[in-house]
Design goal:
Blueprint (H helix, E strand, L loop, with lengths): L1 E5 L9 E7 L6 E2 L4 E7 L2 E6 L4 E6 L6 E3 L3 E6 L2 H12 L16 E2 L18 E5 L9 E7 L6 E2 L4 E7 L2 E6 L4 E6 L6 E3 L3 E6 L7 E2 L9 E2 L12 E2 L19 E2 L2 E2 L2 H9 L4 H5 L12 H16 L6 E2 L42 H16 L2 E9 L1 H18 L6 H14 L5 E4 L2 E4 L5 E3 L1 E2 L5 E2 L2 E2 L7 H16 L13 E5 L18 E5 L3 E9 L2 E17 L5 H16 L9
Helix pairs in contact: 7-8, 7-9
Length: 588
C-alpha cells in the first residue's frame, strides 16, 4: 500500500515549511519513525519521521522548496517491505560460526517510554494511516497527550484537530494528516511518549473495524547488552578493547544543549543514571544527524566503560615458542575506574512532620534549566534606582481611557520593556549569545518577558522584533503573550528565539532581585516594586527633600562576554529612558 508523507503542521501559526534536506533517497528501506528529511518552519529546523515502514518510492518536492502544511511531499510503499526483507534474507551468506561469548548483562534505566501494543485487528490489508507524536522543535523529543478532541468512530477531515498535546511548556493541537475515521487510539490521556511514536490510527474506509485500545501504560524499560565475541588468536591473546576515561569528576547536570551539541532527554537520562558526566558525554563521537550522540552510541560507550569497572584485572599474555626454560609472562595491571557516587536517597520516616510534593514536569525542566545556566554563565548583577514618578502619574491619569479604548489594562510593564529595548538598541553588545568561542551578535531585539502562571510556574514568551514596535505595540504584545501563556494557548515559536529578557520581580512587592540568565542569552533586566520614598532633589541650586515614586532596576549579565562597564552603561541608559518618560514624551 502506498502511504503519503505530508508536510506536518508544527504549530497553529505555521502554515508552510521548507524542505532543507532529504536524509533518505528513493529506493531506501526505512523503518517507521526513522527520520527521512529535514524541514525548516520559520526559525525552527526539525526532522520528519517516516509514518510507516517500507521503501521510499517517490520524492515529490525537491530540497529548497517551500510548500503548504498538509501537502504531499513523498510516497512510501509498505507492501514492498516484506519482499525486500525476503530477498535480503535469501541472498545473504550464512554467518560464520563463532564461539558463544560470555554475556555481560548491563541494566540501564531509561525514561518511561510507552510500549505500544500490537493492534487487535488485522490492519495489514486495510487503508490505515498512523498519527504519530509530532516533533514541535529541534530541542523537543517527547510530548504528553493531554486531551483527545475526537473519539473512536468519529469522522475527521484533513487538518482537523484531533487531540491536544503538551511539549515542555507549550500546549498545542495535532491535526489529522488525512480525511478518514478515527479507528484506534493507542495512547491515553496523560501519557508521555517520544516524538514519532504512533498515538492513533485513521482509516480511509468508514466500514473499517474500530478498536478501543486498552489503557497504555508507561513501564520503565530495561536494555540488556551482550558484548560481541572476542576473536581467538593463536599466537597473541589480548583483552577486549575498552574505552577508558580520565574524567573522575565533572558536571553531573547535563543540559539539552551545550557548546553546539544537542542531547536528547533519553540520552541525558541514560547518562545521568549511569554516572556519565557532561565532560565525558562531550568526548563521545556521535553517529546521529550532525554528529549527535544517539542512544546506541551511549550504550556502546557504557558497555565498554562498564568493562573497565567490572572485569577482572586484564592481562596481556604472549605465547612464547617452546624452549628449554619457560619464558616469563609479562603482566600489566590496570587500575579500575571508580564508579560514580550514587545520588543520596532521602528516606521518609513514618509519621514525618512534613508533606512530600513531587515536582511536576515543568518544575523539573525549570530546575534543570536554571542549574544549567548557573554552571554555564559567570553571573554578575548590578543595581540602580530610578525615579518613575512621571510614569506613575501618566498611568494613573490615562489607564481608564486606555482600557476603554483598547480593551485591556495598561500596566507598568510596557514602559519598563520600552526602556530596556531602547537601551539595548543603544548598546547592542548586550544583545548577544555565546557559541563556543564565538560571540553571536543578534540583529533583532527579541525581548522575553517573564510571566508567572496560575500554577506557580514561570514561562518566558518572546516579543519577536520588539525593536520595531512603539510603546502601544509593545503593550499589546505583552498583553497578548501573557494572556495566551496563562490560558496555555502559546505556540512553540512563541517561547523560542529570545535574545534578552525582562522580569518584573516587583509584582509581588519585591524591591529587587538577582535573576538567573535565560540561556542562551547573556543578560536579563529586573525591575522591582515601586515605593514612595523621601529623596533629595536639587531644585534651583538648592537641595530639597521630596517624596517620589522610586524603583530599583537591575541587570544580571554574563561576565564571559559582557564587562562591568558595558553592563553599567546599559543599566544607566534604562534609568535615563525611564526618567525621561512624561506627559510630553509618552505616546499611546
Amino acid at each position: 500500500m502506498k502511504i503519503e508523507v505530508v508536510m506536518p503542521k508544527m504549530g497553529e501559526s505555521l502554515q508552510e515549511g521548507t524542505i532543507t534536506k532529504w536524509i533518505k533517497k528513493v529506493g531506501d528501506v526505512i523503518e517507521r519513525d526513522e527520520m527521512i528529511l529535514e524541514i525548516s518552519t520559520d526559525k525552527v529546523d526539525t526532522e520528519v519521521p517516516a509514518p510507516n515502514s517500507g521503501i521510499l518510492t517517490e520524492i515529490l518536492v525537491p530540497e529548497g522548496t517551500t510548500v503548504e502544511v498538509g501537502s504531499v511531499i513523498a510516497y512510501i510503499e509498505t507492501d514492498a517491505t516484506q519482499s525486500a526483507a525476503t530477498t535480503t534474507a535469501v541472498s545473504a551468506p550464512a554467518p560464520t560460526p563463532t564461539p558463544a561469548p560470555v554475556a555481560e548483562t548491563i541494566t540501564i534505566k531509561e525514561e518511561p517510554v510507552v510500549n505500544i501494543p500490537a493492534p487487535t485487528t488485522n490492519v495489514a490489508n486495510s487503508n490505515f494511516v498512523e498519527v504519530v507524536m509530532p516533533k514541535m522543535g529541534e530541542s523537543l523529543q517527547e510530548g504528553t497527550v493531554t486531551k483527545w478532541l475526537k473519539k473512536v468512530g468519529d469522522t475527521v477531515e484533513r487538518d482537523e484537530m484531533i487531540l491536544e498535546i503538551s511539549t515542555d511548556k507549550v500546549d498545542s493541537e495535532v491535526p489529522s494528516p488525512v480525511d478518514g475515521v478515527l479507528a484506534e487510539i493507542l495512547v491515553k490521556e496523560g501519557i508521555t511518549v517520544e516524538v514519532g511514536t504512533p498515538i492513533a490510527r485513521l482509516s480511509n474506509s468508514s466500514t473499517a473495524p474500530f478498536v478501543s485500545s486498552p489503557a497504555v501504560q508507561a513501564p520503565a524499560k530495561q536494555t540488556t547488552i551482550v558484548p560481541p565475541p572476542v576473536e581467538q588468536h593463536k599466537q597473541v591473546e589480548q583483552p577486549m578493547p575498552v574505552i577508558t576515561s580520565n574524567i573522575k569528576t565533572g558536571t553531573k547536570e547535563i543540559p539539552t544543549r551545550y557548546e553546539g551539541k544537542f542531547f536528547s532527554p533519553l540520552v541525558r537520562t541514560i547518562a545521568q543514571e549511569n554516572g556519565i558526566f557532561l565532560e565525558e558525554l562531550l568526548s563521545i563521537t556521535g553517529k546521529g544527524i550532525d554528529g549527535r550522540v544517539t542512544k546506541e552510541d551511549l550504550l556502546n560507550y557504557i558497555k565498554n566503560r562498564k568493562t573497565v569497572a567490572s572485569a577482572p584485572v586484564p592481562q596481556t599474555t604472549q605465547t612464547v615458542p617452546a624452549a628449554p626454560a619457560p619464558a616469563k609472562q609479562a603482566t600489566a595491571t590496570a587500575t579500575p575506574t571508580p564508579a560514580a557516587p550514587a545520588k543520596p536517597q532521602i528516606h521518609i520516616p513514618a509519621g514525618a512532620d512534613y508533606d512530600v510534593i513531587p515536582m511536576d514536569r515543568i518544575r523539573q525542566l525549570i530546575s534543570e534549566h536554571m542549574v544549567y545556566s548557573k554552571h554555564t554563565s559567570a553571573h554578575v548583577t548590578s543595581v540602580s534606582e530610578v525615579d518613575v514618578t512621571n510614569i506613575v502619574n501618566f498611568r494613573n491619569k490615562n489607564k481608564d481611557a486606555f482600557e476603554k479604548r483598547e480593551g485591556y489594562k495598561l500596566t507598568f510593564t510596557p514602559f519598563f520593556a520600552q526602556a530596556v529595548i531602547n537601551a539595548v538598541r543603544q548598546f547592542p553588545m548586550v544583545n548577544v549569545s555565546v557559541d563556543g568561542k564565538n560571540i553571536l551578535k543578534h540583529r533583532r531585539i527579541n525581548l522575553g518577558v517573564a510571566t508567572a502562571l496560575p500554577d506557580g510556574n514561570l514561562i518566558v514568551p518572546v516579543i519577536k522584533g520588539s525593536d520595531l514596535l512603539n510603546l502601544k505595540g509593545v503593550a499589546y504584545s505583552i498583553y497578548d503573550l501573557s494572556t495566551r501563556a496563562r490560558s496555555k494557548k502559546l505556540n512553540p515559536d512563541d517561547i523560542q528565539g529570545g535574545t534578552v529578557t525582562l522580569t518584573n520581580v516587583g509584582t509581588f512587592g519585591t524591591l529587587f532581585g538577582t535573576p538567573v540568565i535565560n540561556q542562551p542569552q547573556t543578560a536579563i533586566f529586573g525591575v522591582g516594586a515601586i515605593k514612595k520614598r523621601p529623596v533629595v532633589k536639587e531644585i534651583d541650586g538648592n537641595d530639597i527633600i521630596v517624596v517620589r515614586h522610586m524603583m530599583y532596576v537591575s541587570i544580571t549579565y554574563d561576565h564571559r562576554v559582557i564587562d562591568g562597564m558595558l553592563a553599567g552603561q546599559a543599566l544607566a541608559a534604562v534609568v535615563k529612558n525611564l526618567e525621561s518618560m512624561n506627559e510630553g514624551t509618552i505616546l499611546l
